[in-house]
């Protein structure tokens, strides 16, 4: 059995107590963050961080932010999701391909949390609004999509690409897209940094369950990658 398959089997058979403890603490942290977001339109530090992010106005910087944001919204996210799934399927990682496609509809859970929190978007009184956006603010849907989609792609690359010369660039690109997406939403003036933090944390909770369930089912079926 390949070493990464054995590792997945160990995690799948019984997740360590530390995993569930960290997950529950993160869940409590998100609940507290959401409660404060429901009570306050922005947090201490949100305005200062927004000013710092919006201060960067170089053309290359703007284009990089916009590029990342487009890959974390419709239709970019769907194209990336299906392209990634197709590539995993061709690499005989069909289990990972199915899980990746399952991650796409889970991004829609963001809407229910937004309705529950009911936090307005940043006001032009406090930030420079550079993009027209409707709806509510917390948590950031773009940030959630980026962390969930590219986070699972990061994980899948570790499963499907044993050659580090291929794996590391793919994983680095996933991290870059997720980080730039969050920064773009703040730069555009449509989200506070705390909205981005909330979206990222919410996505992290779902991503952890996806990875755990993938490992658990893989261990039960004892699937091994094709050679």
Structural features, described:
With 227 residues, the chain is an all-alpha fold. It has one domain (3-220). Helices cover 73% and strands 0% of the residues. The chain contains ten helices and no strands. The protein has helices at residues 3-13, 17-39, 46-54, 59-70, 76-90, 94-106, 109-117, 141-160, 164-187, 193-221. α4 (59-70) crosses α9 (164-187) and α6 (94-106) packs antiparallel against α8 (141-160). The protein is globular, with a radius of gyration of 19 Å. The termini are close together. Mean pLDDT is 90; it is low at 1-13 and 223-227.
Low-confidence stretches: 1-13, 223-227
Give the % helix.
over 70%
Q: Report the end-to-end length measured between terminal Cα atoms.
A: 11 Å
Average pLDDT score: 90
The SS-based structural class is mainly alpha
The number of E-state strands comes to 0
Largest sheet, strands/sense/barrel = none
Secondary-structure element series: HHHHHHHHHH
Rg calculated over all Cα atoms: 19 Å
Strand percentage lies at: under 5%
- Assembly type of the chains comes to single chain
Q: What's the tally of helices?
A: 10
Shape: globular
Q: What's the number of domains?
A: 1
Summarize the SSE layout with pairings.
Blueprint: H1 3-13, H2 17-39, H3 46-54, H4 59-70, H5 76-90, H6 94-106, H7 109-117, H8 141-160, H9 164-187, H10 193-221
Summed up:
The protein has 227 residues and is mostly helical.
List the defining traits of the structure above.
single chain, mainly alpha, 0% strand, disordered C terminus
